[in-house]
Design brief:
With about 400 residues, the protein is of the alpha+beta class. It has 7 helices and 19 strands. The protein has 2 domains: about 150 residues, no CATH class; about 200 residues, no CATH class.
Amino acid sequence: MAYQEVNRTSYGKNVGNSFKGIFIGLAMVIIATILIFWNENRAIKTYKAIGRAQDACVEMPDINTVSPDFDGKTVHCTGVASASESLSDENFGVKANALCIRRDVEYYQWVEHSKTTKKEKIGGATEETTTYTYEKEWVSSPQASSKFKDPEYQTRNFVYQVVDDKETLAENVSFGAYKLPEFVVGAIRGNEPATVEMDSTTLQQWNNAVKAHLGLSDTVNVNYISVRDNVVYMGSNMDNPNVGDVRITFTYVPNDQQISLIANVKGNTFEQYVDPKNGKTVSSVAMGDVPAEQMFEALKKNNKLITWGIRLLLLIIIIAGFRKMFSLVPTLLKVLPFLGKGAGAILGFACTVLGIAWTCLFTAIAWISVRPVLAIILLVVVVGLIVWLVSRSKKKKAELQENQLENEQ
């Protein structure tokens, strides 16, 4: 059964909230506008840093000898990353000749989901109905059911044991005659299932730990631990999970991985390239034998994706901010719900256009010194949007006046 909460808000309180929304919306627009400058500045600096790193980059054909000729230079090289020691997660009997071992923990829990519907009442009051539903899911952290809205579910969650995620990186990784630093080793991919080999003593220790967590005596003859391939399972049945079960999955990055690297040489190891003009760092690790040009293009593409992702997020925040700033108008008209709804639709459209124009305007301002041509194009787009919005507004106003005259006649 779904659980529902109904909240009714009076017309006066809605108006008061709209007044508060003016300041909240203004803050959202101001902060997002500042972040526009930060994002464009970050994107341009990163792009230039990648370009300067590419210009400075030279091929290092032989990594089997530490050459002083390359010390301090930005290089592109290819070779095999090889760890000199085996890695282990001794708590669970996992060992592998690997560059990295990862432990990922999941918990089978009740998860709360909510959906809210809003109904406008004649007179300006609103009624919000929130429906809460609950489903069993594998999640990355225990869910606090005590905070659930439905009292029937507030005591349903527990876990057999809380276990931390863990990543163990090899410390001594050779790359020909060089040693790879942690930031390179951590970037090497290629996860494979790691075999779990827990001896009877370790199994018993974990079983006793679960019993202690549940408040049971060690003498209770119940087994809560099972192992299958690369999974350690805490629960009664791995094939039929119940709330409280814990699933721990182990993977590893095999040793002797061929990689391509772009970084600065520092003695017999590497460090990230630091742009001398803006301080941005650049480095790249690719699996296999990948040309330098392809790796730099991937860096530029990634920078572009991040930039556009932030742009879209800031655009959404700005539009939402404008809607909050001007929400008083439809709120005042919600004495008659259909008037408020119509005004809200018009406001939403206008704020979307205004938000796009605002974002383009300040993006163009941020570009003026470094991308003048694109800045001018954006400014033309902004002016066009404003002219179109004004003309559309005048047209709408004229149509309303005509309708009023027709109704009077």
